[in-house]
Write a structure and sequence with these properties.
3-stranded antiparallel sheet, 5-stranded antiparallel sheet, alpha+beta
């Protein structure tokens, strides 16, 4: 066990003595400098000034308490000094934040990392130094910084959220509650309300404007490849490939795509979703010629050849938007961007062609709110293809084929998945995400019959009011549904009203 004692080492040129805490460990000695000064040397660790004695006693007691929580028996005196000094050492937030963001960038989250770099830079400019310390980030300072962002539309929410995420990760990495090493003393975000970003303007435009843009003649030029042509083609691809983003369009990989199908992991969320934001899109027949126009050389690693003109996805996005803007200006159309075509895809499919919000979200590779259910379903990617082809017919050919909206009915009363007594029904029972029973049989009149049959698979020790998932599929019609039901009195409730 280390031994501590207050002492001085030598007399300074001004006649005073700097007070140290001497540490002895395994006959080796080290010193921790304090901020106290004495006008006389100590007498066996005791000073004339009672305030110095009290300070040193408290410091020694604190050091002993912290070492008692660690297995320091075999530590060297240098390791003990480093450990005790690190407890109260201020840490540079800027350095930690930039390492955090660099790691994010290296994991392939380039777009998200860019937002973090912007947030860190803005905070540093506000405080006035590129070495912001954690101790400087008090609640008052953070609130003043957020107030300085109040006139922004999105940054007032995005920047503080980024800084808060860095702060939370730092507290996990740098604080060790088990050893009572608290290097970041407090979290200023616990009592700070981050404002919400302004609702963005809806960027969608009418079908007439989209039709005019897609069919617009290109301005005369002597260039082999003009920006207006790229802008028009990219906008068309976005519109008829499920509202795909420019980042995903640029990043399509040769090994994942072929002449018939585009496959990709959405750049923005591939590292944060359980399904790696995977999407598969059979290429609509009306887009095949445009895809062929931009096919990359074999062996390049890319599916489309945009990489030949643009070095990064950001430069590609900027180049496409410049081309779109120039073509709009040439034809005196309202200014548009790539986002216009993404928003228009979603808006027209939802409002004019009758597709559901879930269908549109599925096509645009947005995360689903039905996460558990989605884990059981084999995706039908052709849904998006049919939607894109319907959109093409509507915009280009003027043929409007609306999606028939299903009438919502009570599933317990309708039992529509069981079409006849002779239908072959597959039933699977899941509890805690594990399959615990399955059947394949005929002779069911309705869903109630199927669920009653599934009761035989329920474990004897299943808790009252536990919930199970019942997957029922009609092999004849291909229709499939998943029902989440409560267990009561050892049986599956047909619906949750029971």
């Amino acid at each position: 066990m280390a031994a501590f004692k207050a002492c001085v080492k030598y007399k300074r040129s001004d006649g005073l003595y700097t007070v140290y805490i001497r540490i002895t460990q395994n006959r080796k000695i080290g010193y921790i400098k304090t901020d106290k000064i004495s006008d006389s040397p100590d007498v066996n660790g005791v000073f004339k000034d009672v305030h110095i004695n009290k300070y040193c006693a408290n410091a020694i007691a604190g050091y002993a308490e912290k070492l008692n929580k660690s297995d320091s028996k075999n530590w060297t005196v240098q390791e003990i000094m480093a450990y005790l000094n690190s407890i109260d050492e201020d840490i540079c937030f800027s350095e930690y934040a930039k390492k955090f963001t660099d790691n994010m960038y290296n994991r392939g989250q380039e777009r998200n990392a860019k937002n973090y770099y912007l947030a860190i830079g803005h905070l540093e400019r506000f405080i006035g130094t590129n070495r912001v310390m954690f101790s400087q980030l008090t609640r008052k300072v953070i609130e003043q910084w957020i107030e300085s962002l109040s006139n922004t539309a999105r940054a007032k929410e995005m920047y503080p959220v980024c800084i808060r995420q860095v702060f939370r990760k730092a507290m996990l990495d740098l604080n060790d509650e088990d050893r009572d090493v608290i290097r970041i003393k407090s979290n200023p975000f616990l009592r700070i309300k981050i404002p919400e970003a302004d609702m963005p303007d809806k960027k969608a435009v009418s079908v007439d404007i989209l039709r005019a843009f897609i069919k617009a003649k290109l301005p005369p030029t002597k260039m082999l490849v003009q920006s207006e042509e790229i802008g028009q083609d990219v906008a068309t691809l976005i519109l008829f490939l499920g509202g795909i983003s420019t980042a995903d369009l640029f990043s399509l990989k040769e090994e994942m795509c072929d002449d018939d199908t585009i496959r990709y992991n959405r750049c923005k969320t591939k590292n944060s979703r359980r399904d790696s934001a995977y999407c598969e899109l059979p290429i609509p027949k009306d887009v095949c010629s445009l895809i062929s126009k931009y096919r990359a050389k074999k062996g390049s690693g890319y599916y489309l050849n945009f990489y030949e003109k643009y070095s990064t996805l950001d430069s590609f996005n900027a180049g496409a938007n410049i081309g779109i803007a120039r073509l709009c200006k040439f034809h005196n159309m309202e200014r548009m961007s790539s986002y216009t075509f993404r928003h228009s895809f979603a808006t027209i499919c939802r409002n004019e062609l009758g597709y559901s919000d879930d269908d549109v979200a599925f096509a645009m590779n947005h995360s689903s709110g039905h996460r558990i259910t989605k884990g059981y379903i084999r995706e039908d990617w052709s849904r998006t293809t049919r939607m894109c082809e319907a959109l093409y017919d509507y915009i280009v050919n003027g043929v409007k084929i609306e999606q028939k909206k299903e009438v919502e009915v009570d599933e317990v009363k309708s039992f529509r998945i069981v079409s006849s007594y002779k239908s072959l029904i597959y039933g699977t029972l899941y509890y805690n995400k594990k399959k615990i029973g399955e059947i394949a049989d005929v002779g069911f009149n309705n869903i109630k019959d199927v669920m009653e049959r599934m009761n035989e698979f329920l474990p004897e020790d299943i808790p009252e009011m536990a919930r199970v998932d019942v997957k029922i599929e009609n092999a004849d019609t291909g229709e499939m549904r998943i029902y989440n039901r409560m267990v009561k009195d050892g049986k599956i409730c047909v619906n949750d009203h029971h």
